[in-house]
Design goal:
With 713 residues, this protein is mainly β. Among the domains are: 44 residues, no CATH class; 175 residues. The chain is 2% helix and 42% strand. It is built from two helices and 78 strands. The strands form eleven sheets. The chain has a 17-stranded parallel sheet, with no helix packed on it. The chain has a 16-stranded parallel sheet with strand order 2-4-7-10-13-16-20-24-28-31-34-37-41-45-48-52, with no helix packed on it.
């Protein structure tokens, strides 16, 4: 007679002829008698095997489910491993689509706790599409559930695993081919504060190292993992090593590392919508060591580090590139909220840190830190809320030297917003700090927003602009001639002039933060329809190279200056000026007073010009009243015109002079004119000399005549 559960009638018996009970094959189920042989015989039928509700079956291990699609259903039954069992694996699913459902599976830790912990397994899965569903496994010296080999689409669901000293659920790294589609979902795993030879892990999906073959497209979904409340060991809630994995919807509580996407070939992994928290200060919430991955929408509470990554030397081709860390809530970390540190042979390029909320009650040396070879990161839309303005940085870039964009973030409770640090004299380039809100509780010493520490330096492309400080970008009563003289200001703050006027300027910008800091004018206001600038250009003795080029610059000196030089040069090389202008404000420049001079370019005393000097499309303009010296060029060495000791000095196009032109002493032959000169006033005989007759000089519409190269009335 088949030992069916009570209440099974004749019709139901007919429908269950594909089911056998282990009692049919002699199992006693009293928890004392060894029922191993009865189980072996029941499994050999290939049918669905069930137990009798309330029974406890004592087994010596080594059972195998070997028929495709066979099911073992131990709902409402108990299974216990015999003390000093011959095999440390209770049962193995060794046929495709085989399943185990239900039951209380006791690994009898008190009677089986010697040798290699990895040999102790309640259920082993060594075939494709195998399933372990709704079972309770507890008290194992080693593992609860083991999946080994290169098998695909295995699933563990709705299980409770408790007090397994090595791993609760462990899928070992494949060695002969990839393993695809492993799923662990809806499980509750309680990890103890003891182990069987290694740090306990709740769920572990593994790839071999070095990673010849990998776990691919694995899923760890909606599980609850609980670590000890007073730990002495290093436990990990979830470890994933593979490609294209998804870890989502899990609640991971009080582990040294909550979720670890660890070394090997961990790439393109999504860690989303998990809650990771610790009631004591544990190491880290989420560890991500694989590039092209996304860590999004997680809540991490406590830990020293919220999200951190550091590629490891055992896989030198791995990296942290193209990672997205977005919309996470990182709360009350004690060291850093986010830290990325690629190993010496690895990189961390194009890390995107977007939309995270970070709050801390501890001063941090960088709430977010990018270290080593991290480049071209984007920080956008994050909230940095530190302890106070007395200490701590929002972002620390340590040797992460180039290409970072920091925009649209909110910083508060920090001494410094961004710090560039290096102990090896790294020059930081192309780091931009734009459109950020730094208006609340930022230290007064943070005058640059990209502050330097160690031996770091700032190079080209480091910019600060359009940041909101609460005091910048506002109108202040500065008049037209004075910068702010009181108050504490940050670099980049702007004070607008309230009463702007022609030939004045639009405002002042703070170039060095402080009380009141250093301020410089900006935004010259043009006079009439002729745009002019109020300051000249100086090329000093220290300049070097093949010469200077000024393109499209309007060189201007206003009234009241004793000497009006558009360009002053002492450097001994060729200078090329084109599409420029030297002018004074017509009608206001006193050119008749002693010492008043107006030149497009002046060569300072003792300057030796060794190259060709070219004037192209230049206009020199003086007041209509004339003046003592109104010239295109002046050389203090003695020739009162443009001169060079070697090379050729050349005027191109039209030289139009609104006033008198004094060409210099009569012995000079430096002018070579190839074009037209138009004069408003008639020149004095001999006042213009040219070395070429390929030019015409006009007085109004009258062409002046030349005698021996000298133009006269």
């Amino acid at each position: 007679m088949s030992h069916m559960p009570p209440g099974i009638g004749p019709i139901a018996i007919e429908l269950t002829r594909g089911i056998v009970s282990v009692r049919d094959y002699g199992a006693v189920g009293d928890g004392v008698t060894d029922d191993t042989t009865a189980w072996v015989n029941a499994l050999a039928t290939g049918r669905r095997v069930i137990g009798y509700p309330g029974d406890t079956y004592l087994l010596n291990g080594g059972l195998v489910v070997g028929t495709v699609g066979q099911v073992v259903d131990m709902t409402d039954c108990k299974v216990k491993l015999k003390t000093a069992a011959a095999s440390k694996i209770i049962i193995q699913l060794n046929a495709a689509r085989a399943r185990i459902v239900g039951g209380d599976w006791d690994m009898n830790l008190a009677g089986n706790a010697t040798g290699n912990a990895y040999t102790y397994v309640a259920v082993s899965m060594t075939a494709d599409h195998t399933v372990v569903d709704s079972i309770y496994i507890h008290d194992s010296y080693g593992l609860g559930i083991l999946g080994s080999g290169a098998y695909n689409y295995r699933e563990v669901r709705n299980c409770r695993v408790e007090n397994c000293r090595q791993q609760g659920v462990f899928f070992d790294g494949p060695t002969t081919a990839n393993s695809v589609g492993t799923t662990i979902s809806g499980c509750t795993i309680i990890v103890p504060d003891v182990n069987g030879g290694g740090g306990p892990v709740g769920i572990y999906v593994h790839s071999t190292t070095p990673a010849t073959f990998s776990a691919i497209r694995y899923r760890i979904i909606n599980n609850t993992l609980v670590g000890p409340t007073a730990p002495t060991l290093s436990q990990v809630g979830i470890t994933g090593r593979g490609i294209d994995g998804i870890v989502t919807g899990n609640h991971v509580y009080n582990f040294d590392i909550g979720i670890s996407i660890d070394s090997s070939v961990s790439q393109r992994t999504v860690i989303a919508d998990n809650r990771v928290e610790a009631v004591v200060t544990r190491l880290g919430g989420i560890e991500i060591n694989g590039g092209y991955s996304a860590v999004v929408g997680n809540i991490v509470i406590g830990h020293q580090f919220g999200i951190f990554g550091s590629t490891q030397a055992q896989n030198p081709t791995d990296n942290l590139d193209a990672m997205l860390i977005g919309t996470n809530q990182l709360i009350n970390q004690t060291v850093r909220c986010i830290q990325m540190t690629p190993a010496a042979t690895n990189t961390g390029y194009r890390i995107n840190i977007i939309g995270n909320t970070m709050t801390s009650t501890t001063a941090m040396n960088g709430m977010v830190a990018l270290r080593a070879d991290c480049r071209h990161a984007l920080f956008m839309g994050n909230l940095f809320k530190g302890l106070s303005s007395a200490d701590g940085e929002g972002i620390l870039l340590e040797d992460a030297s180039t290409g970072h964009s920091i925009r649209g973030n909110k910083f508060s409770g920090l001494e410094r917003t961004v710090q560039l640090y290096s102990a090896s004299a790294v020059n930081f380039t192309n780091v931009s700090f734009e459109n950020n809100d730094v208006s609340e509780d930022i230290g007064a010493a943070d005058s640059e927003w990209l502050s330097l520490a160690g031996t770091a330096t700032r190079g080209t492309g480091c910019v600060w602009r359009n940041n909101y400080t609460g005091t910048a970008m506002r109108s202040v009563s500065q008049g037209t001639s004075t910068a702010p003289a009181t108050g504490t200001w940050l670099r980049g703050d702007i004070a607008w002039v309230n009463d702007p006027a022609e030939a004045g300027h639009a405002g002042w910008i703070c170039t060095t933060g402080g009380t009141p800091g250093t301020w410089r004018k900006f935004g010259h206001i043009f006079t009439g329809s002729n745009p002019v600038f109020s300051e000249a250009v100086t090329l000093g003795d220290s300049d070097s190279g093949d010469g200077h080029t000024v393109h499209g610059r309007i060189l201007h000196t206003t009234s009241g200056l004793s000497d009006g030089y558009g360009l002053t040069a002492t450097q001994a090389a060729a200078t090329f000026i084109y599409n420029g202008m030297s002018s004074t404000a017509s009608g206001t420049y006193d050119a008749t007073a002693a010492g008043r001079e107006n030149y497009a370019m002046k060569l300072n005393a003792n300057a030796t010009r060794t190259g060709a000097n070219t004037l192209f499309n230049i206009a020199v303009k003086a007041s209509s009243s004339g003046g003592q010296d109104n010239r295109a060029f002046w050389n203090d060495t003695g020739d009162n015109h443009f001169n060079s000791t070697s090379g050729t000095s050349t005027f191109f196009q039209t030289l139009a002079i609104n006033g008198n032109l004094t060409a210099g002493n009569a012995s000079s032959d430096a002018h070579v004119l190839n074009g037209n000169i138009t004069l408003q006033n008639a020149p004095t005989a001999g006042s213009i000399k040219v070395g070429s007759l390929n030019a015409r000089v006009y007085l109004g519409r009258q062409i002046l005549t030349a005698a021996s190269g000298t133009y006269t009335k």
